[in-house]
Amino acid sequence: MDLFLQNIVNALQWGSFYALIALGYSMVYSILMLFNFAHGDIFMVGAYIGFGIATALLGFAAMIGLPLPGWLILILTILFSMFFTSFVGMLIERIGYRPLREAPRASAAITGLMIGIILETGNLALLGARRLSFPALIESATYQFGGIFVTNKKILIVLVSLSLMYVLHLFIQKSKWGMAMRAMSFDFQAVPLMGVSINKIAPLTFAIGSALAAAAGILYGLAYPVLDPYMGVLLGWKAFVAAILGGRGSILGAALAGFLLGFIEIFVAWIFPSTLRDIIAYSIILLILTFRPHGFFGQAHSTQLRL
Amino acid sequence: MKRLLMVIVLGLIGAMVFSTNVWSLGRKTVIKIGINAPITGDIPKVGEGTKYAAQMWLADINKAGGIEVGGKKYPVELVIEDNEAKAESAVKANTKMITDDEVLFIVGPQSSKQAVPAGDVANNYETPMITPWSTNPDSTKDRPYVFRGCFLDPFQGPVLANFITEEFKFTKAAVLYDVASDYPKGLAEFFKQAWEKIHGAGSVVAFESFTTKDADFSSQLSKITKSGAQVLFTPQYYNEVALIVQQAHELGWKNPIVGSDSWGSAETVTLCGKDCYGQFFSTHYAAAGAKGETKAFIDRYQKEHGYVPDDVAALTWDSLRLVQKAIESSGKITGKIKKDRKAVRDALAKIKNFKGITGDMTFTEEGDPIKCAVIVRISDKGEYEFYKSVCPN
Amino acid sequence: METKQETPQRAYKNLLARYKAFSNRIPLLGWLCGGIGAVLIEYFLGDLVSYYLGLPKVPVLFGCLIMLKKPILIPGAVGYLLLVYGLPVFFIARALATPANKLAAFLAKGPITIAALVHLGLLYAILHIWTDMSDYRVLVLKLTMIAVMLTLSLNVINGYMGEFSCSHPGFMAIGAYTTSTITLWLFANDKLFGEALLPAAIGPFFFPLALIAGGLVAALGALVIAIPSFRTRGDYLAIISLAFLFIVKSIIENLEFVGGPRGMSSQPNYSNLPMVFIVMVLCIWIINNFVRSTLGKALCAVRDNELAAESMTVNTRKTKMVTFMFGAFWAGVAGGLFAHVLRYVNPGSFGIQRLAEILAMLYFGGLNSVTGSIVGAVSINLLSEALRPLEIFKWIIIPLLLILVMLYRPTGLIAFTEFKPKELMRSKE
């Protein structure tokens, strides 16, 4: 029983990363009908920007002799990193996606893939191959409830990601921009006729997705403090699976599917021999897709896609 | 006009073709040594140590004017290829160095994951290769052209099992290893065997695995924590060590964590921090308190690169010196690469009692040296303290 | 008064026109003869020429490696290229233009098979002599030909069928492991399967069967994806195939009898140059016929408008499944060859990175085009070998190039064209 509860805690943390990254994929996919294969690497860039900002803030605090509390630095790091990374996302949209809006969808996917490779290699060329150790901004504390161990980091990660998701939900549901996005995901062609320029919606979508990825990157750095240029690759592809599993046009679905993927991975590793994790986890996903081919919350979309 | 253009173009081509600086480069026999190292990828610090040690060695050779064979000095060139810490890239790099660069000798790859497959290529092409750091027996097994510079896992596994038994009097152990990598998998199995030989079947209470590139081990570590194990053995590379040790502590693990020679990188403590203080691991040499030539090497390395060399650098240095000695005693460099490779291989197999900075070396039939292991404790300052030395009987 | 002033542009245009007039008359046969002349010159005189040009040895890959490593040798390497390849090819091709044209006209009268065989024979002779110089060339050439097969078979799925499949490395892995298991088990003494069961002498003759077996098992694997994915149209193939890729990799990692994550090594050396060449030619020929067949036409109809195709009595689901398995078959065969070229396979070789590579080759060359796939695979493969001395910057330059191609030609360099061997081989007179 202890182990069960403990693994729920573990899976909540692990699923948060999948969910946050999957949201970015899902937004671009729902609204623009494109795969953004550079998204995993945007997550990496966000983590590195966060690293840079955190180090700079720590250095600045030490320089002026003012002991800034760790949580303040963390909040500033997350906000700044989200801000800067959203520009990276918009830049990618401008370079790689906007010129290809009329092209076959796969071409844009390939451009994204290649931008991702450039980001990885560029990072490697710029910073060298050495691993970076993400600064521990908050003192780690472990709480024990019965046989379950929970750290303050875990609570923080889950809370921050849940609240980010809630803010996104509010934005999509209540704001004018959110309404435009929903409309766009409903009918791609009609919305520009209504006076909402796609050249505004598309960058906004990329910016929001990238900001979420940046937040995920920093939280990831807190939990797994070893940064390397390829950290986003596998995580990104798996989050991509989660995003589509959630269903097209569903923000909630992507988040839930992200958590589901985390739960499946953690629990399979617990119940079965851990070597079988990937086989069983992805077979489950294959089965889900066989019986629910539109994902969890996806609407049945029209047969004619812009491929 | 047209004719003028023609003349200019032809003249330019002529000038390019017969320009003097090109002429001056004649053909000399150059001894090429291939270095197959993980410069990028998961364990770049290992690649860096390899590269630095090789460059220090090359500087020595250049100062002496080359390697002297049969009374004649030959210049030496290093061909450094990156294997990205991947098995398939190591195979490709070896094939490329052997067929394209025509190297005389290959030093590397370092970790068994790459050395086992890459050794096969070297052996198939009859090119001698020495892997300084690979401890898996398969690297050299049935491969006359492949040598190694360190002890083997069938020795290291029991050394660690005995050490834990004697030091802590524990009877239940847990193991966490990467199933997709030769070195951790092999060593985990040797450790399990040795431990169960001492404490009986079932005394390894948790034998958990993950795959390369995983970052979250919470599920496996939760299982281990609840299994009643008294010690956790994890033969992983330094980037994973940091994550495993920290996550174990976060999940309430309070017992010792023991590692193997793959922990011995200069970066383990930088990444892992306080969580690794007080843990033990086995390795090839202890930098603190070294004497003689070992100390000279450490001091020189530290002066040039700013940190204490890890075991990879020291073993690479020893391997290159061995290669140098083998080339020197091979008699003659003919310039026919296949013949020279065979001669150097035979010379290397004959070397007896080589005095290396990580211990004396004589090769067995399989091309493995018999060497001692050192148990090291990570001190409260993050330094590697010599704790104990274990030699094969 | 009219002056005949020659501006540089006009000179350039003139030169181009003259080159065109000059080369228009030469049939493919003539160029191939020129190629043979060039490689023969290199074979006999290459060493001498390179020595007098101050090069350390014969440039292996058209001097690219040397030029990037030591820029000082660029003039020498350029001179070498001109003396050994450029000029001889030109002059021999020109000199033999008339007889070559006659021969081409004569061959055109007979069945196309014979004409194709003559051309392929000459092409093989060029490659054979060229690779005789160094083992490295052999390796690069074999891997390039395998890349051509992979790209082409993915083009069938992603191009002609218009889906987005991510599972090609998985099919390749299945083929590689099946073929390796058969050859290691039957013909080699190794760690995994012990003594050879059959005499090694018959191995090379048996190898094609092993390749076909590998392809068939891969096609069977494709069925696992095809059944759930083609019930609806959409992007579900993308993730189902991606999940499949993860599953295949993980299954192989857990199969201890094929070496698990450590892989298999010491495959017998059956993938020699003629073998790979013949299989590649077969692959191009069969795929080209497939896409021009009725089924291929039906496929294009399904891609462009599934509903319309359905109402025109095309069984869309069956068409898609057959095509998908057909593509997977060739990926499996290519994987089998790949395993016997490197003589080592491990599950790690068939991951996301390989997927990115194949996708890059496909989209660079162009969708829906056999020629495009060949061009894409050869250029990306040779480029990534030639840029090796740049180390990691190679992986900035190649993606940048690909992005530029995508921006200016969104469907790839040579897309939506038909490959017509007859047209290619015709006489130019």
Structural features, described:
The complex is a heterotrimer of chains A (307), B (393) and C (429). Chain A is mainly alpha-helical and 307 residues long. Chain A has a domain at 17-230. Chain A has 11 helices and 4 strands; from the N terminus they run H-H-H-H-E-E-E-H-H-H-H-E-H-H-H. In chain A, helix 1 (2-32) packs antiparallel against helix 10 (251-271), helix 2 runs parallel beside helix 4 (105-127) and helix 10 (251-271) packs across helix 11. Chain B has 13 helices and 16 strands. In chain B, helix 7 (182-199) links the parallel strand 8 and strand 9 (204-210). The radius of gyration of chain B is 24 Å and the shape is globular. Chain C has 2 domains: 11-111, no CATH class; 135-425, ABC transporter involved in vitamin B12 uptake, BtuC. Helix content of chain C is 72%, strand content 1%. Chain C has helices at residues 8-24, 28-52, 64-69, 74-95, 97-109, 112-131, 135-160, 168-187, 203-229, 236-254, 273-292, 294-304, 306-311, 316-342, 352-365, 370-386, 394-408, 421-425; strands at residues 264-265, 344-345. The radius of gyration of chain C is 24 Å and the shape is globular. The B-C interface holds B 1-2, 5, 13, 16-17, 19, 21-27, 40, 82, 86-88, 91-92, 95-96, 98-100, 113, 116-117, 120-121, 124-125, 138, 179-182, 185, 211-212 and C 6, 11, 51, 53-54, 56, 60, 65, 72-73, 75-76, 78-79, 82, 134-136, 138-139, 191, 250, 253, 260-263, 265-266, 342-344, 346-349, 388, 391-392.
Short summary:
The complex is a heterotrimer of chains A (307), B (393) and C (429). Chain B is α/β, with parallel strands linked by helices.
Please give the radius of gyration of chain A in angstroms: 20 Å
CATH level-4 homologous superfamily of the largest domain in chain B: Response regulator
Using the 3D structure, state the CATH architecture of the largest domain in chain B.
3-Layer(aba) Sandwich
User: How is the largest sheet of chain A built, in terms of strand order?
Assistant: 1-4
What's the total number of strands of chain B?
16
User: Largest protein interface?
Assistant: A-C, 50 and 48 residues
Report the total helices of chain B: 13
Q: Could you outline the blueprint of secondary structure elements for this entry?
A:
The complex is a heterotrimer of chains A (307), B (393) and C (429).
Chain A: H1 2-32, H2 39-63, H3 70-97, H4 105-127, E1 132-133, E2 142-145, E3 148-151, H5 152-174, H6 176-186, H7 190-193, H8 198-223, E4 226-227, H9 231-246, H10 251-271, H11 277-291
Antiparallel strand pairs in A: 1-4, 2-3
Helix pairs in contact in A: 1-5, 1-8, 1-9, 1-10, 2-3, 2-4, 2-8, 2-9, 3-8, 5-6, 5-8, 9-10, 10-11
Chain B: H1 2-17, H2 20-23, E1 31-37, H3 44-63, E2 67-69, E3 72-74, E4 76-82, H4 87-101, E5 105-107, H5 112-124, E6 129-131, E7 146-148, H6 153-168, E8 173-178, H7 182-199, E9 204-210, H8 218-226, E10 231-233, H9 238-250, E11 257-259, H10 268-272, E12 280-283, H11 292-305, H12 311-328, H13 337-350, E13 354-356, E14 359-361, E15 373-378, E16 384-390
Parallel strand pairs in B: 1-4, 1-5, 5-6, 6-7, 8-9, 8-10, 10-11, 11-12
Antiparallel strand pairs in B: 2-3, 12-15, 13-14, 15-16
Helix pairs in contact in B: 3-12, 4-5, 6-7, 12-13
Chain C: H1 8-24, H2 28-52, H3 64-69, H4 74-95, H5 97-109, H6 112-131, H7 135-160, H8 168-187, H9 203-229, H10 236-254, E1 264-265, H11 273-292, H12 294-304, H13 306-311, H14 316-342, E2 344-345, H15 352-365, H16 370-386, H17 394-408, H18 421-425
Antiparallel strand pairs in C: 1-2
Helix pairs in contact in C: 2-4, 2-6, 7-11, 7-14, 7-15, 7-16, 8-9, 8-10, 8-14, 9-10, 9-14, 12-14, 15-16
